[in-house]
Amino acid sequence: MNSYPHPIIAREGWPFLAVAVVIAVLASAFMPVILSFLAWIIALFVLQFFRDPAREVPQQAGAVLSPADGRIVKVERTRDEYLQRDAIKVSVFMNVFNVHSNRSPVDGAVQQVWYNPGKFINADLDKASTENERNAVWLKTADGQDVTSVQVAGLIARRILCYVKEGDVLTRGQRYGFIRFGSRVDVYLPLTSSVKVAIGDKVSATTTILAQL
Fold first, then answer.
1. Which of 54, 98, 155, 169 lies most in the core, judged by the most C-beta atoms within 10 Å?
2. CATH number of the domain enclosing 140
3. Does the pLDDT at position 169 exceed 50?
4. Same domain, 178 and 75
């Protein structure tokens, strides 16, 4: 089981949830029933958005795990702009109803982290990978395989949070970041990788195996 000190509700959501609940309580006390009802609906939405459950971690050697909950929107051979190599890209799109905690896809040491400011177009579009605000983490596995995991902001997402730096060592399924309110994560893999998902598949962070190195 992936260890995380604040299970169920992500710490990034505590301030938002507190404000939403306070507003809902005040609405219940001083506002018409319909407004009170809407306030509690919003509070419930905030609660579900920031849920962050612990996950079982597959132990299969060489497995690349999904870094996010969502839907596969791209599987293709392309150029990894960060490592300047040809690679296989697997993209996971997260809508506002998915868990937005991001997890490490592999066991590996952080070689470098890049942050790129950019636009906030719909993360479901291909050009979001190169035009939107994004944060990339280069991981190297114990056997020398390179994996690049890129958090991409979306139409509503305005904040990418990444908690790792060069020299950190991550274990597969370890929580390393968060993106608020709709986004995607692109994973760039060696060309020798065997992809285990297809476009349209629904995936779960940590528990779904994206590929085999």
1. 98
2. 2.70.70.10
3. yes
4. yes
- Domain hosting residue 15, numbered range: 8-52
> Which residue shows structure tokens 């893999």?
189
Find the angle CA(189)-CA(201)-CA(184) to the nearest 5 degrees: 60
Average pLDDT over residues 50-57: 86
For residue 105, the SS3 value is coil
Whether residues 73 and 150 fall in one domain:
yes
Same domain, 84 and 39: no
Give me the percent of the chain exceeding a pLDDT of 70. 87
Q: What is the mean pLDDT of residues 8-16?
A: 81
Q: What is the DSSP string of 109-154?
A: EEEEEEEE--B---TTSTTHHHHB-EEEEEEE-TTS-EEEEEEEE-
Cite the active site residues. 183
Instruction: Find tokens 């000190």 and name the residue.
Output: 5
The dihedral built from the CA positions of residue 30, 36, 42 and 44, taken in this order, carries a sign that is positive
Q: Do 85 and 16 share a structural domain?
A: no
147 token code pair = 């994996």
Q: What is the mean pLDDT of residues 67-90?
A: 96
Provide the whole-model pTM: 0.84
Please give the tally of structural domains in the chain. Answer: 2
Mean pLDDT within 121-136: 69
* Mean pLDDT of the residues in the chain: 88
**Region of 182 on the Ramachandran plot (φ > 0 left; ψ -120 to 50 alpha; else beta):** left
Beta bridge partners of 75: 90
Taken in order 41, 66, 138, 133, is the CA torsion positive or negative?
negative
